[in-house]
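Entry 14. Structure prediction run on the chain below.
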Amino acid sequence: QVQLVESGGGLVQAGGSLRLSCAASGLAFSNYAMGWFRQAPGKEREFVSAINWSGNDAHFANFVRGRFTITRDDAKNSVFLQMNSLKPEDTAVYYCAAGRIGFTGSYRFEYEYDYWGQGTQVTVSS
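Output returned:
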């Protein structure tokens, strides 16, 4: 059974930092690209960041570029999202996803991912 479990969300003031973790099980982790999406109340789910299967190619939404970093640790079957300089508009439920995406993939579309976690809440106060 494939499972993705997010953790690390919480409440933080604007300008603060959080590190989200996603632990995967039941799949060949090193063969999958890993992505982060988020969804705020009343908004569509949107792409945040992704990293390819080998860990040498990272992708970011424009609104987080320069503030967030994504890394993976295949030995731990985990992917991480370090979020710095957080803004109130970053408030959302953050979802981890895994997909078999080739190097020509965009990494930005939900349909590219096969498995999803349940999400972790991030709240940034002003």
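The CA atoms of residues 105 and 112 lie 8 Å apart.
Filed with the rest of this week's runs.
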